[in-house]
User: What shape does this take?
Amino acid sequence: MLLTALLLCFPTAPCAAPLDEPAPRPTYKLPPGPVADRLASPGAAEALAAHRARKAAGEVGPAWAGLGIWSSPAGVGAWEGDSNWTLWRDLLAHTSDAPAEHARPNHFWLAQIARAQGRDDDAWTHLAELELGDLHDALEVLIPNHAGPLPSDGPLLLSPMLPPVPVFDPLTWEGLPPLREYVVEGLRLGPTTLDLTVSVPREGVEVRLAHRSGPPLTLAVHIPTPSDRESSLQYVDWERIDEPPFAHAIQLLPGAEESILWSRCMPSDQPWPQRSTNAPFPPGRDLVVETTPDDPALAQLTSFAKVLDELLDNQVRLRTVSEPGTSEEEPGLTALRIDLRPGPKRLDKLRAILSQVERYLLSRD
Assistant: This one.
């Protein structure tokens, strides 16, 4: 089914460890950039300890939204109705003109929304705005895309977050350019602790998993793919998978070698112009979101068009069309059509539009 959602929902809060036996927190090695700078900022250890003390004393930080994940070939089923779209609209409206200290909780939610929509680059942008303690809490959940107990009805679906793109000055950087890679040491999934490495070299994406402590753990691991690439071949522990599934079954055993998953990727055509902070659409042009009358995502796209109409200076409406060349009402010569009819690139196009709208609104004075 085109719009079946993989419900990788975030619980209202991660499971808390007993106060007399605090669970060790994961450590993160990230490429240079805003999030790495925040983790390495002066006084980071003290700030994190104070954050944990406040949580142990019962203070509650920003809540997890419990959003479903978009995936391919799944679509926007988890976003049916108006509530999530209006949440996104309100967060953008209240974040763009708010002082930094008031905007930070909104970035916590916007990071979750971007992660749920498969916009990992945007999620990293929002994570960089968080207080250090909230940043650690968010990374612990958003990187593996899981919080709380393990599922009782099958293996945990692990869909790792793509690493942030390195941000550095090539004129002053010493040595080889930094890799687009992160390493998470001491990631806890249920009673099992593991190390996770995700790398994005030019040729593809690599995921490494190593058992560190606790009982064996069975996972279904999805290899993420950057928005500008397409997966062509996949390997699991160097065994070629000719018809790769959405997720690979992996068992992590104490004392075993690490598991390595590799996806060879090729550049793909972009379904929408490159993301920027410029206005996503020409001013003064009406926008017509087009899909088919029998589209399973009709309700979601109706809400999407309504929210765009409220956020942008353009007038936005939804129009259903059948096959090209029908005698249905045409949108007009000055209107800009946004073709979101069902197709293999629809979800990528929708993600790109959301990303550009979000960047534009948050960059306005």
